[in-house]
Amino acid sequence: MASPAVCAALAILLAKDDAYMTMEMNKARAKYARSLLTAKCKDVGLPREYQGRGVPFNNS
User: Fold this and answer.
1) pTM score, two decimals?
2) Cα 4 to Cα 7, 23, 26, 41, 55, distances in angstroms
3) Residue 16: how many CA atoms within 13 Å on its side-chain side?
4) What distance in Å separates the CA atoms of residue 52 and residue 7, rounded to the nearest whole number?
5) What is the per-residue pLDDT across 4-60, written as a single tens digit (0 to 9) for each?
């Protein structure tokens, strides 16, 4: 059930990001979204195969 939670977290981050909203819809935009989400992930101390990149955490 991680996928719906991560999608929701990404939607919240992207809705607040003016640069993303003005980008052309292409691979670069998808790459930007992924990097934005990855930057907001917090390591929870588990091995990578259990936690992936971590848990999305919005500290702003």
Assistant:
1) 0.71
2) 5, 24, 23, 15, 13
3) 9
4) 15
5) 888 888 898 999 999 999 999 999 999 999 999 888 888 888 888 887 777 776 655
* 46 CB burial (10 A radius; 0-12, 13-18, 19+): exposed
Q: Dihedral angle at the C-alpha atoms of 53, 20, 23, 29, nearest 10 degrees?
A: 10
* Identity of the amino acid at 4: P
Check the CA dihedral 9-10-11-15 and report its sign.
positive
- 3-state SS class at 45: coil
Could you tell me the residue ranges of all domains in the chain?
2-56
